[in-house]
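sry for the spam today, last one i promise. C-alpha cells for design, 264 residues
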C-alpha cells in the first residue's frame, strides 16, 4: 500500500501521474486536512482518504509531500503509528534524511526525493538520495515508484539543494520564459491565442530537440543564429540586460532557500 500525506500541487501531481501510469487506486491512500479537497481527491481519483495516523499504520511506502514548514510536527505525530518496515519517501525541499530519521524511528528507511510537477504528464525528473538505513533495495523501490512518473537519478544527498534549485524549481523558470515571450508578442500587437500557440510549440519543439539530439544547448542556439540576423541581435540584448547572471543568481537563491528550509 502506498500512502501520500499532503496532496497539494506536488502530491497530487505524483498521485495523478502514478494512477495515469497504471497504479491501482485501491492501493493508494491519501491524507489531506481540508475536507473539501479530500472529497475532491476521492471523487477525482477514486482513492481512499484517511488520517495521517492511518496512512502511517497501513503504508508499505509513505510519500511525504507536505510543506517543509509542516514536516516536523507531522513526523512527530505519525512516528508511533509507522510500520517498522515502512519506506518513507519525502519530497520536501530542504528536509534532510537526518531530520526525517531524528523525528521518526531511529532505524527507519528514508529516501529524500526531489521530483517536479511534469510528473503529472509522465515527464517528471526526480533525484533521490538514501538515508542511513535505506538499503539498495529501498532505493530500488523508491526509484521504481518514481520512475512511473518520469526519469529518476540517484545523487549524493549533498547535491539535493542544488537539485531542488535546478529541476525541482526548474519548471517555474521555464513558465516564466514562456509567459514573457507571450506577453512580448501581445505587446507587439499579436492576438494572445496566436502568441500562446507559437510560444508553446516553440518551447515544446526546442525541449524535444535538446533531449533527443544529444547536442549542447550552445550548439543548438548557434544553429538558430544566422550571421547578421535576428537571433544574434536578440542574444546581444539578453547579455546586455544580464539575463545569464540573473538566472544564475536566481538558481543560487533557490539553492540557498532550500538550505534555509532545513534549518526550520
Ligand atoms: N510544487 C512543486 O513543484 C514541488 C514541491 N515539492 C515539495 O512538495 C511539498 C508540497 O509542496 P506543494 O505541493 O507545492 O505545496 P501545497 O501547499 O500545494 O501542498 C501541501 C499540501 O499538504 C497539505 N498538508 C498540510 N499539512 C498537512 C498535514 N499535517 N497532513 C497532511 N497534509 C497536510 C496541505 O493542505 P492545506 O492546503 O489544507 O494546508 C496541502 O494540500 C513541499 O515540501 C515542497 O518542497 C517538491 C518538488 C516540487
Ligand atoms: O517552491 C518550492 O519551495 C518547491 C520546491 C521545489 C519546487 N517547488
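last one done:
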Amino acid at each position: 500500500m502506498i500512502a501520500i500525506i499532503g496532496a497539494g500541487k506536488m502530491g497530487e501531481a505524483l498521485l495523478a501521474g502514478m494512477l495515469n501510469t497504471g497504479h491501482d487506486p485501491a492501493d493508494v491512500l491519501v491524507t489531506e486536512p481540508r475536507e473539501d479537497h479530500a472529497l475532491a481527491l476521492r471523487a477525482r481519483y477514486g482513492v481512499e482518504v484517511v488520517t495521517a495516523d492511518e496512512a502511517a499504520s497501513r503504508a508499505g511506502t509513505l510519500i511525504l509531500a507536505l510543506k517543509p514548514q509542516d514536516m516536523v510536527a507531522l513526523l512527530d505525530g505519525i512516528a508511533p503509528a509507522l510500520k517498522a518496515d515502512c519506506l518513507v519517501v519525502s519530497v520536501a525541499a530542504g528536509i534532510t534524511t537526518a531530520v526525517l530519521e531524528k523525528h521518526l524511528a531511529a532505524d527507519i528507511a528514508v529516501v529524500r526525493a526531489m521530483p517536479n510537477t511534469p510528473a503529472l504528464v509522465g515527464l517528471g525528473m526526480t533525484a533521490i538520495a538514501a538515508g542511513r538505513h535505506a538499503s539498495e533495495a529501498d532505493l530500488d523501490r523508491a526509484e521504481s515508484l518514481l520512475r512511473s512518473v518520469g526519469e529518476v537519478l540517484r545523487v549524493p544527498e549533498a547535491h539535493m539543494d542544488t537539485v531542488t534549485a535546478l529541476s525541482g524549481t526548474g519548471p517555474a523558470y521555464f513558465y516564466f520564459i514562456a509567459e514573457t515571450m507571450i506577453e512580448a508578442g501581445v505587446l507587439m500587437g499579436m492576438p494572445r491565442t496566436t502568441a500562446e500557440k507559437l510560444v508553446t510549440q516553440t518551447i515544446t519543439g526546442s525541449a524535444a530537440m535538446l533531449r533527443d539530439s544529444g547536442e549542447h544547448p550552445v550548439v543548438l542556439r548557434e544553429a538558430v543564429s544566422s550571421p547578421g540576423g535576428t537571433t544574434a541581435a536578440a542574444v546581444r540584448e539578453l547579455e546586455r540586460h544580464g539575463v545569464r547572471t540573473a538566472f544564475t543568481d536566481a538558481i543560487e537563491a533557490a539553492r540557498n532557500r532550500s538550505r534555509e528550509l532545513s534549518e526550520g
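The beta strands are 2-5, 28-31, 48-49, 61-64, 87-90, 109-114, 124-130, 150-154. ok im logging off now
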